[in-house]
Amino acid sequence: MDKTLFIPAAFSAFGLEYDLNLRLDYLLEKKSRASYVLCASGMTLQKDFKAALDWLNVEGFETRPLSLRELSDEAGGGLSLDPKIPLVLFGTGALDAAACDALENFLDAGGALFVAAGPYSANVDGDWSLKKNKRDFLLPLLERRGIFFLDSVAADISCVRANFRSAEDGGQEKNASVNYPLWINVLPQEAAPYGATVFWASPMSLDESKTDPLLLSSPASWRFLPDKKNPELLFDTNPFTVPKSAVADPLVQKEASVLAARTQDKKIVAVSGGLFANDLLLTLAGGETGDFRNLNFLTTSLLELCGEPDMAALKNKGGADFSLWKITDALEWDAAKNFSLMAALVLAPAVPLVFCALFFWWRRRRTR
Questions:
Q1: How far is it, in rounded angstroms, from Cα 282 to Cα 285?
Q2: Which pTM does this prediction carry?
Q3: What is the pLDDT of residues 37-67, one digit of tens each?
């Protein structure tokens, strides 16, 4: 009916069904989606989370940025948030009591919240040290809904390998590729078929009667406890000196960690680490191409919060697990090795020889 929408670019079939359904929803039913977005970590949306804003717009969500002052005014009736529109919150350290009251009222009115939070803030532009937030008004709100953050930082063997600059004794800098266990590479799982990356994440403890885990670290992960004797350096966050495995240390505990969770009423999705979608860290973690798995997790979470699980499943359709499969059993290893040798040394040469023999036999039969 003379209505047209277009998909800006399609380099592969990945996500094409979602893009088509997104536009058909609008053409046929005028259905559109929106999301409030707020940064409360001391950073700015346009400078530090621009990729997330652009991503959500491309994925069909009209982003409506909020300021901390606007949210605080909401508690006094100055701003009216639509509970049908989910709110994305990056960081919580800068929220005051009035803003948290507004969020509480928003949730009580039926609103939905995606929040990247944690008890610590990282000095991204400096030495990467972690400091505990003096008073976080939002964490009690999450605790009342069954999500608790442990006073520690998770680490994992499955982690980001990134290029960092190191200063030598002579003062000269050099680049080095280092495994950084405090940036966990979350393996593919049901809520994130392509995996994800979390940065300086604190493990979660959940009330199982109210919440469900969404993202888990690997069984080989561990967590660092804060060094309370040294408040200026609670954790060793230096990529070159931080332990790369669960060493025998009283400040280290080995166990898998919950890194993201959702309330059973599907009104809150919480992921550990306020820098979950930070532009700089996504670039460092993903190299030249960037790591956009976190933004994909953000989109599917918002669709779930909007009550559209079918669209969320469509967004993740075609997800594949490209991780390596390792054989750990000795007998299974011997059987696999023997089969591989037989396939490479016997079957591979035999198949063309058999076809050649059959061809010559057929040709000889025709000439008789």
A1: 5
A2: 0.81
A3: 999 988 999 999 999 999 999 899 999 999 9
